User: Fold this.
Amino acid sequence: MKVLVATEKPFAAVAVNDIRKIIESAGHEFALLEKYTDKAQLIEAVADADALIVRSDKVTADVIEAAGKLKIVVRAGAGYDNLDLDACTRRGIVAMNTPGQNSNAVAELAIAMMIYMSRNCFTPGTGHEIMCKTVGIQAYGNVGRLVAMKAKALGMNVMAFDPFIPVERIKDEGVTPAESLEQMYSSCDFISLHIPATPQTKGSIGYDLISRMPKGGCLVNTARKEVINEPELIKVLEERPDLKYVTDVAAACQDELNEKFGNRVFATSKKMGAETLEANINAGLAAAHQIVAYFEDGCTKFQVNK
Assistant:
């Protein structure tokens, strides 16, 4: 089987070498496409691939259509909205992600962003400490749990809201379960977002929730930009000069946000949540192992389409 690693933003060299070893040791052919500048290059490369590993690369319907032999695609990372799941399902292609492999890197960034905004983006002036502040975690999955652990270690109070996680489990981990999103936003100095971009969540974080935050509150987004209602974000920041917004996924209106609100907003220049050597290696190797397991015994443990 031919396994193609196609990454516009490449894996670390050590990760590529280890992925190659895993693939070739299992008797498969390894192929690599890095730093491509046009989708046509990806479409050409997938034509004879049996398996595909990507990072944030867009695996759209036309890419799927060009991949006549493709049996499995693995997104090296947790979020998989860059994969056209319907197109994969129509073609009988298994789509997977690698949950948990990037979680610590994203959680560390979320904490770093809280500190950065509390210290006025490291510009002169008196800032604040995050110790004894309260952080609310929206979605208590792999990343959310790690944010909670790190926040508690720094002396923060932690709340969480996740309708899919049993309340008792949240309590058992020393975290206060919020009765509702509205209660959590009203109670927390920081809100850390870890929800996926789905039809239910897109645009769901807007005026009603953000405006509930206490004085000096800060919204931290290491999830997806699509979950933010950007016009309503602008409205609440205009009305509440005490609030702040920091994001690892620059808003479509980021230039406007920067111009209007200065150091009250910050966005990384390019999504940095998983940009650590450790996460890079972990996710890439997990993707390779999942492909090998699929070809060896049909394992679909991390399949995200049906």
The first strand starts at residue 2 and ends at 7. Residues 277-297 form the longest helix (21 residues).
